Amino acid sequence: MELLDLGVLSGPVLLFGGPYSNLSALRALIGQARELGIAPERMICTGDLVAYCAQASETVLEIRRLGCPVVAGNCEKQLANNAMHCGCGFGKDSQCDVLSGAWYAHADRAIGGADRAWMAGLPDMITFQHAGRHCAVVHGGISDISRFLWSVSPEAEFQEEINLIQSLVGNIDLVIGGHSGIPFQCEIGDVTWVNAGAIGMPTNDGRPETGFAILDSSGVVFHDLVYDHQAARDAMQAAGLTQGYDAALTSGYWPSEEVLPPALRRAAVTKG
């Protein structure tokens, strides 16, 4: 378990997850941060730099140039270990598992040894102090880097992860997680759990915009990220990544909802 403590951060902190090899989205986010006057040391990524989209090596290069803190996602772990699959936690032979084969193979071909070595050195958890709060950043969870936690997940599942985090770093007030790709905030006892979402893929809500979050002295505010999603789709199609995630960039809907809890699938959300 590799830990990185950033000490005390002052001013707004930009939280984001899942660049997913979407260079257009990452560059738009960096532009937003500059407009807001947020320096790279106050931009924290919850991992999965590399995934569905086409520009894996370019996205890693952009992040490395930026120099912001990054928690290792399952994709970084797998690439660092030269593994043959993404380790996303998809059910074996599920549609998500099958679809992941193409984009992971594309990323595996694109990422070189130097970037894999850099990924191997990424921390499993980041901690920092902000406005009197002790904050921890993880990817999916401590028990499982690929653990899916959703807004509708049982409180006991969040509490299990909080207990594990606190066993490592002491009492915390805020957890920032990633992996699932859909932003939310919930209260688990005295601890706030936030998922900042993913900038590289829409949130399955029919809109091409993605999103990020900003932590300030009053709490967390979620923001849309508007970027050139057509350019990202064109790059995927040029690379032959036409299994469904390319269309998701413009339609705003994932090609498969198998990984989602029933309450978060389109039919349930529309009915609600």
UniProtKB/TrEMBL annotation:
<dbReference type="InterPro" id="IPR024654">
    <property type="entry name" value="Calcineurin-like_PHP_lpxH"/>
</dbReference>
<dbReference type="Pfam" id="PF12850">
    <property type="entry name" value="Metallophos_2"/>
</dbReference>
<comment type="similarity">
    <text>Belongs to the metallophosphoesterase superfamily. YfcE family.</text>
</comment>
<protein>
    <submittedName>
        <fullName>Calcineurin-like phosphoesterase superfamily domain protein</fullName>
    </submittedName>
</protein>
<feature type="domain" description="Calcineurin-like phosphoesterase">
    <location>
        <begin position="38"/>
        <end position="216"/>
    </location>
</feature>
<dbReference type="InterPro" id="IPR029052">
    <property type="entry name" value="Metallo-depent_PP-like"/>
</dbReference>
